[in-house]
Amino acid sequence: MMELKPLERLRFFSGRLLSADDLQQEQEYFLARLRRQNRFLHGWGVVSGLGVRLSGKDTLIIEPGLAIDCAGNEIVLSEKSELSLKGIAGKQHLILQYAEIHVSPTPSFSDSLDSSATEFSRVRESTQVELAAVDPSPNHRGMGRGTPGCGQPHALCLATISKQGSRWRVAVPRRSQPGV
Ligand SMILES: [Zn+2]
Fold it and tell me: What spacing in Å lies between the alpha carbon of 46 and ligand 1's midpoint?
């Protein structure tokens, strides 16, 4: 299986010179192992929570929870989220997407002693919740816990909503439910 390529980790010894690239590789090794374990041991899909329901006439509520995407990233929604459906028409997919945001700018002295140069010093792991016209995983049949997915970090479809008359109907795909 192409995806199960061997990993490489750092080896330390006294007198070794450490670069930013080395320290990045140190993180990447453990992230790669965790993502591989998430995919092949647990599988992609919703792990817990992330229930979707309507509140009132045109507000969608998404409960907090945890999911795993096809690349093994953990998608965490730590607080209840709300989406307004005002002005939305037709069939829509409620999607969750793992996202990394660079934060905490700090002085960088890599090229000179000019302290005005900055680099982001941290990566915040976050989750985007939005509506999309297209299902990001339309061919993912039989997926769920215990299946590794396609390996790509695309969004996960939590529910499909469609307007019938003046009322919205919420349908949760069977494949995104825990244990399916
Ligand atoms: Zn996939």
Answer: 13
